[in-house]
Amino acid sequence: MSDVQQLKPKDFKSDQEMRWCPGCGDYSVINGVQAVLADIGVAKENVVMVSGIGCSSRFPYYMDTYGFHGIHGRANAIATGVKVANPELQVWVITGDGDGLSIGGNHMIHSLRRNVDMKIILFNNQIYGLTKGQYSPTSPQGLKTKTTPYGSVDAPFNPVQLALGAGATFVARTMDVQPKHLKEVLAAAAAHKGSAFVEVWQNCVIFNDGAFKGWTEKAVRDELTVNLEAGKPMVYGKDQAKGLKVQDMTVKVVPAAEATVWDPTVASAAPAFLMSQLDNDPAMPRPFGVLRTVAAPTLDELVADQVGAVTGKRGPGTLKDLLYTPDCWQVD
Amino acid sequence: MSSELIRQDDVTIRFAGDSGDGMQLTGTQFTDTTAKVGNDLATFPDFPSEIRAPAGTRAGVSGYQIHFSSSDIYTPGDAPDVLVAMNPAALIINYKDLKPGGIVLVNTGSFTEKDLEKADLKSNPLTDGTLSGFRVIEEDINQRTVEALEGTGLGKKDVLRCKNFYTLGMMYWLFSRPLEPTLEWLQMKFKNKPELAEANSRALKAGYNHGELLRLFQGRYDVPKVDDAPAGTYRNIMGNHALALGLVAGAELAGLKAFLGSYPITPATDILQYMSELKNYDVITCQMEDEIAGICTAIGASFAGRLGMTTTSGPGLALKTEALGLAVITELPLVCVDVQRAGPSTGLPTKVEQADLLQSIFGRNSEAPLPVLACACPADAFDCAVEACRIAVEYMTPVILLSDNYIANGAEPWKLPALEELPRFKVEFVTDPEGYWPYRRDAKLARGWAKPGTPGLMHRIGGLEKDAKTGNVSHDPDNHQLMVETRLQKVMNIRDSIPTPEYFGPPDPDLLVVGWGSPYGAIRSSVEALQRDGKRIGRIHLRHVYPLPHGLAGIFASAKRIVVPELNMGQLARLLTSELPQFKFESIHKVQGKPFFAPELKVHFHRILEETA
Ligand code: SF4
């Protein structure tokens, strides 16, 4: 492996022209990832981007790193194999709400529970973009799409709740329209050892434009979103005047001075889950930032440790040991 | 007083009892001891698919057949000489298979009214004439075991659990086997429960002495060891175990570390279990959340530079279909083992069939060719697994290796290969950025393997079609045609690295038998028997079923008629007909969840030979 030189974000761009629709939120995310990789100073050859199928899954082709564009829903499983086979690699999973939560939902929850050391970016645009506009497992009830002409009747998943429920050791949410916040969250994910799940609210300008507008537009953003920062009180609103207070297992709106200090590192996932429930209440702000980050052994390191321990105990196996066991007998 | 030994060269015993009676253990102990004595042998366990069918019922009967001999044998035997029946259900579903005049050892301790009722019997087969024509030996094995273990302080339930070792002891006496290997095994097995080691040892010895003292049997048999067995080191091996060893050895011979991504499924699970024990061979095993994750982790591991492997059975192979296509288009090495079972769907999970052949060769969307191999018997599973690894890395391709239930759970003595004779096919990863592109190919058309972590070789591969030159995504029509043809040609080139199958038989035979997979033993036995009778019959066995090896047309042209026995509805015959349409392939097919037996094949072949004459 080569010495790590100081790379710039553009060094992580491949020579392939990006083919997302003009104005698509995906551009913002790839810029953020390239900036973070340059900042952390990782060598290009040690990065592997793995994706499934969907608009966002073209991502690896646009990165000058190793990349694997998999099949629909299976990015997490492929990435698990990459990371366990070579724990030295920094592995990123690029997936979407259809890819990661519908067809790949099983692999998503299992890779999270195993705490495979990989960064998972879930591009949530609440729609199937590549297949041109069908509802997804995160589409809100009532959404009219090509397959729900009278409105969707399915109840949606809340991605961060799902990740928390699956035991993820890092869960965060950010949005395409706030590049600075996006970069901070991705940097925190990159620094986390273990499965880091990042939901990005990503606008699909073509098939579901403005899906998040009700929260992300400048005019409403301050009142309807709250940025959770470790060690800081949970404040939001115009002039950061309002606060959130956790009391009696509920979250209450209080003056900023009375706000609870946010701590995503507590062992229990309950506070993070409580915050994620704010999504269900239209009167409350939706949470962004790092909801949970806790340390736990990773699958790749446990696997490697076990191989090491068994080898230490039994000695490295040879072909001879493998075949010529004590229960053999000799014919002359 | 010792009975006189009657020499017998070939014996088949079937142990049958309730699933809870420990018949599989009894059978494997008899097998291991018999292997050590120096007989050739083959076994066939037959257990119910229900985990615990109600005790004493027909559905709960578990059987284990062993065929052992003083000469080379290739099948677990046809009609047993001896049936051990631990209860009425075991007796009633097995006695019809016995040879006329065969011995039935019955445990009368389990023949109460209630036992008969559980087995759906209106009258007692021991008294109603059912067993006329057989030599029936009745013994209350339950009671004998209780007597033998008096004073051990074990509860009645634990005592009765030892009855299989009592029975084993009787069989050891009858066939003059030594007790030591089993006694040693018991010491090891129950290292931490000496009271159980002691009780089972006592039961075993008591059963043996009982044979000696009570003269239950009319004589005692000696099955001398094989005299002309080739010199070497031998080991008794089951098919799944041999296959696991072959996968680990194959990775080693490629200079790689093995990675197995899998999911439990009958009858392939043992391979995952065996490989999970071999961590000190730098083997990583991951039991994943499903079949698809199993193969996808293996593909990811191959991308990262390990040798990815996955193991499954038919329904699981169906689930892995899309990912196999991904391995085809990304041209990564991968070994996918399918231990076939009877289907369709869940089918008969513990029974044998060879009906995944066409699924393996053609069962993917679009043009997704990949090589398919099949093993013939437990020992052959090792060689085939090594060969599958060789093809995977030399041709940068997924390989499907077919085994089946009959091979997986059958056992036979395996003459171990000399280490220096094993093939070596060490992988050279690409490290030089000069002139590198992802689909740059060697003379065989295999692309170079560059693994992540290598400076200057960053590249992207995936399920979208790629430009033959740059490796970038390409929708160009001519490029797609070129890539499809190149991938097919690459797989066809594998023929240049495999031998033409050896033909065994007289020149210009009246009948040529073409076999693949586990019918190997029954075909060989029946063909050799007919050859001894002077019939003009010959045989070949196909290890490589796709692509077919060079040179087959020459062999086929010499035969008057060609017949293909298969445990499916004629899948290889169909493949041969389409690949070599100038010949007529007749199919013998059987789909009963049972293997072919040599006598039934002999009847088929005989009929055809008569017609040809
Ligand atoms: S369809 Fe939507 S998600 Fe896909 S590239 Fe276009 S804007 Fe982006």
Point out poorly predicted stretches of chain A: none
Largest interface: A-B, 62 and 70 residues
Q: What is the architecture of the largest domain in chain B at the second tier of CATH?
A: 3-Layer(aba) Sandwich
Kindly identify the CATH topology of the largest domain in chain B: Pyruvate-ferredoxin Oxidoreductase, domain 3
CATH class of the largest domain in chain A: Alpha Beta
Major sheet of chain A, described briefly? 8 strands, mixed
Quickly give the structural class of chain A: alpha/beta
Q: How many strand units of chain A?
A: 12
Name the beta content range of chain A: 15-25%
Bound molecules: iron/sulfur cluster
CATH H level, superfamily name of the largest domain in chain B: Pyruvate-ferredoxin oxidoreductase, PFOR, domain III
State the separation between the terminal residues of chain B, measured CA to CA.
Answer: 56 Å
Mean pLDDT of chain A: 96
CATH topology of the largest domain in chain A: Rossmann fold
- What number of structural domains do the residues of chain A give? 2
Query: What would CATH call the class of the largest domain in chain B?
Result: Alpha Beta
